[in-house]
Amino acid sequence: MNILGISSVIRRVSHACTKAGDRFYEENILNREFTATAHNQKWCTDVTYLQYGLGAKAYLSAIKDLYNGSIIAYEISHNNEIHLL
C-alpha cells in the first residue's frame, strides 16, 4: 500500500445505544440488601426476553418475593410494554 501511495480509512465505532438520563432511574430503596426477614417485605421484578419458534419472541415479567425466592406473579406478552410491570 505504501508503494502505491494508498491508505485505508479508519472509521469510528458507532454505538447503537444511547446513555439513559436521570429520568430512567428510580430511588435505590433496597440499597443492595436483597434479604428479607418476613414474607411480602421486599419484592423485585425483572423482564426477560424469550425467543421461540422461527424468530418469534415474547417477554416474561416476574415478581419475586425476596424472603423465600417464590414467584408472586408473572406476565407473558409479545410486546415489551409498561403493563408487564
From TrEMBL:
Designated name of the protein: Transposase
SUPFAM superfamilies for this protein: Ribonuclease H-like (SSF53098)
Phylogenetic placement of the source organism: Bacteria, Bacillati, Bacillota, Bacilli, Lactobacillales
